[in-house]
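Regression report. Comparing outputs from two consecutive submissions.

Submission 1:
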Amino acid sequence: MKNQKKSLSPYYTDLKVKERIDTLLFENAKIWSNIGTGSSLDVVTRKEGEKQWKLLAKEIKSLDKDYYNIVCPYGIDS
């Protein structure tokens, strides 16, 4: 039954939603991989990284709540 719910998620059924969510997750990966590097992508502090992730996660939630619950099973404030 769990697999059936996954297959109905817009992430798995709508290519535009999947591409947008994948882009948001890639942005998140760039945030965390560049902290402390001094590069142009460096957000400098963990607190700023978390702030930016919350914005990205909220957009993921607006696109597909089911997939958001997979990516953030405890919410974005945990």
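Submission 2:
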Amino acid sequence: MLDKVTAHILGIVNEQCKDNNYIVMKDADIIPYLGKKNKMTNDGIKEAINYLAEREYLKLKYSEEGTYCLTVLPKGRLFDETAKEDKYHLTEEKLRNVKFLLQISFLSALFSFLGAAGAVFIMYYFLLR
């Protein structure tokens, strides 16, 4: 399983490498896509790319001083497509959790209202009479 940053780097390379040809990428090409939250250094990018290459998500032809010649292998494409599907797909477990959350919210609101109405009734019936 890949961590979020490594999976994000795989997605970036996958977007750039559409036609299964080798592409040349630099660290400067990857960093803008990572966003401000991910403070990734050049060494971190190199480690992530090497990690992906070792596990056969990418094929790395050469790597020198922040420049990489690489392509995405079928395993990498499959992982990226699956990750995108899972991001927008509601599984049965997620759907069950959403239904449960809605039921609990509704019941909480209902019993809060009934409790407040009961308190007003008790106050009116016993204290104001």
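Expected: both submissions complete independently.
Actual: both completed, but the second showed a warning that disappeared on reload.
Relevant detail on submission 2: The first strand starts at residue 23 and ends at 26.
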